[in-house]
Write a structure and sequence with these properties.
Elements: E1 17-20, H1 25-36, E2 42-43, H2 55-65, E3 69-72, H3 80-85, H4 87-107, E4 112-116, H5 145-165, E5 170-174, E6 176-178, H6 191-205, E7 209-213, E8 219-220, E9 222-224, H7 225-238, E10 245-247, E11 253-254, H8 255-266, E12 271-275, E13 284-285, H9 290-294, H10 303-316
Parallel strand pairs: 1-2, 1-3, 3-4, 4-5, 5-10, 6-9, 7-12, 8-13
Antiparallel strand pairs: 8-11
Helix pairs in contact: 1-7, 2-4, 4-5, 6-8, 8-10
């Protein structure tokens, strides 16, 4: 098969479909979506069962299971604090995961593969909303540049596989994601789950004031992970091209506005303060989703409904949350 004679269409629901990272925020949502869409031969391994940083084990796994389709959702992820504190880990671990899985997938004939990156691949001061062709046109946000470089390498490897081997593999770059299965830990979480935990704990304990990092002025776009999972399958069945595809809602909110929505959702009625001595990160990050909409997909879960359901999930799973 070559990229020239490939035409997107419905995937075989009975084929072996490997979701790398199927227990994570994105991977678990993709797994649920694929099950709901009728895929009957889904394949997943925990990090204890298969260390994707171990090249020998990854190649052995692909040789044994021979998946026809793959979504690479496995990654080491974290918020500003984690990215800024452990840049070597974010660069090294993600590069090894990507290279091992993509090399093994090519070696063992994976027909259709979707690589998932992140909107942090784009320059810190990219023109808003950020188009796919903004990649590599400016300096990255320094607090997560190591993670971004790893993801850019993944995009480049997908494009290289298309050029050298003609395989119809694609990349998708989601905006900030949230929802069931997120990481709510104080040290490793992104802003939205971190705020849910902080405000929920404050509401439970009766704290009169909550102080958040930064000024609250940066604007961010948030996409519910179930929408992201829907977009992934849609792209696999309806899109083929070398460019990464932005996946988002096309709208954004300030962190202050986000904090207000979350405080309301958890029932917190105290004061909300901001520590301007802490970093804000990129001032604005809104994706241009024209390419995604042209492929026939748009987000359907509004942020207030999405946060409300995420708060419910968080409270129902407090005893078993990821640390």
């Amino acid at each position: 098969m070559t990229a020239v004679d490939f035409a997107p269409g419905p995937l075989d629901r009975s084929a072996t479909f490997y979701v790398a990272g199927h227990r994570g925020l994105v991977g678990s949502a993709i797994w649920r979506n694929l099950q709901g869409a009728g895929f009957s031969n889904l394949l997943g391994r925990t990090s204890e069962e298969l260390d994707l940083k171990n090249r020998t084990d990854v190649f052995s796994f692909f040789a044994t299971n021979k998946p026809r389709y793959v979504v690479l959702a496995a990654a080491k992820v974290g918020g500003i604090l984690a990215n800024n504190t452990y840049p070597v880990d974010f660069l090294s671990d993600n590069l090894r995961i990507q290279v091992n899985v993509l090399d093994a997938a090519r070696e063992h004939g994976v027909e259709r593969l979707l690589f998932l990156g992140s909107s942090c691949i784009y320059p810190k001061f990219a023109e808003q909303p950020i188009r796919e062709d903004s990649l590599l046109t400016g300096h990255l946000e320094p607090t997560n540049d190591a993670y971004a470089i790893a993801k850019i390498a993944g995009i480049t490897q997908i494009q290289a596989v298309r050029r050298q081997y003609g395989l119809p593999w694609i990349s998708a770059m989601p905006t900030n994601l949230y929802g069931p299965g997120d990481n709510f830990s104080p040290e490793g979480s992104h802003v939205l789950p971190a705020l849910i935990r902080r405000f929920d704990e404050a509401a439970r304990s009766g704290v009169e004031s909550v102080t958040n990092w930064g000024t609250g002025s940066p604007k961010r776009e948030f996409l519910h992970v179930d929408d992201m999972a829907s977009a992934c399958l849609h792209l696999l069945e309806n899109y083929d091209g070398p460019s990464q595809v932005n996946v988002g809602t096309g709208t954004d909110v300030t962190i202050k506005e986000l904090a207000s929505v979350i405080a309301s959702a958890v029932g917190y009625r105290g004061q909300i303060a901001w520590d301007a001595t802490k970093p804000d990160g990129t001032p604005r990050k809104l994706l241009d989703v024209s390419k995604l909409r042209a492929a026939g997909w748009s987000a359907s879960i509004g942020i207030e409904d999405g946060i409300r359901s995420t708060v419910e999930w968080y409270r129902e799973n407090l005893a078993t949350l990821r640390s």
